[in-house]
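=== RUN LOG ===
request id: a7f3
mode: sequence -> structure
chains: 1
length: 371
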Amino acid sequence: MKIERVTPILFDRCLLVRVYTDSGIVGTGEAGLWAHHRMVHEAIKDLAEYYVGKDPSLIEHHAQVVSRNTHFQGAVLSAAISGIDIALWDILGKSVGKPVYQLLGGKVRDRVNTFANVVGDTLEARAESARKNLKDGFTSMRIMPFFKDFEKDPPSKVVDDAVKIVGAVREAVGPHVDLGVEIHRDLELGPAVVLGQELKPFRLQYYEDPLRPQSTQALAYVAKHVDIPLAAGERSFNLYQFKEILDLEVAAYLRPDLSLAGGFTQVKKIAALAEAAFVSIFPHLMGSPVNIAAYVQLDAAIPNYFLMESHTQADRLNDVLEEPPQRDGGWIVVPDRPGIGVEIREEALAKHQARGAPITGNFHADGSVAH
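=== RESULT ===
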């Protein structure tokens, strides 16, 4: 079996990769650098020149070739490689009639736990959102503990409002629902530590991305001074960056993005490194239902899986799949279909016009860039 062509497809805010073979088997993956899909789209077309004519089953070999070549470094190319890698695993699974999780060692769970986001513009709205999530069957929720335009407030008010938001949600759902906070890299070092210390009484499962990702040492400072487990890594795009996070003992939860950090080939290795350090895998997820399906294959196969986003907003794109992922309250059922478990309805993709992510910026009261 040989690869005949590699085709990137932009639709909505998603970027699929379709890999066609001379046997008629077509594999599908998704690239996850969601703010820069047009650049990744071009990178996939460049990479296709290498892959066409190759045996699609030599997945590790291909990953080594394209990732070691001096021209293939950085997040754009890593996202492109990731989407193709997922598609190659999809092809391999379909060629032998087995789900990808079987090729990764077999499943260790029958369903995948997910979290729901808590949303709203007021404390009352946040509390109501949390109660609705609980009613819908979610046992885990994530809070971004800020209101609109919080960047313009002084740090003391930001911290005070965040504590009130988390307190309102905890009161709404009670003590037995898992809660975490997503800072979204929006704080500087000092306020990140102060807020983390103030949130300790709410028994949070994790404190996610309190700082921008460029300094793992700064993140280690937060970890040293905050008694909440840290989650980090959603912007990391290779094995070596995750090893640095592990080596510096920064996080209890790693957040690799399957469609950015190297696909199944690399993220399986990241999970193994984390397992040896007793660190859990908390995947970052964006994109379409195709990405959800691929993530479920990974989650089913790794023993140290923790949680991922329910990403129910992607369900509006379910029409592009013959059989979309099956939800069961706050869980997603692990399917037994071959490959990543989905087939694409290509005619439906055209209904969802491609759209980008414009750069807007966030600013402090003095006009400086906030995050």
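=== NOTES ===
The CA atoms of residues 290 and 356 lie 19 Å apart.
Residues 75-96 form the longest helix (22 residues).
=== END ===
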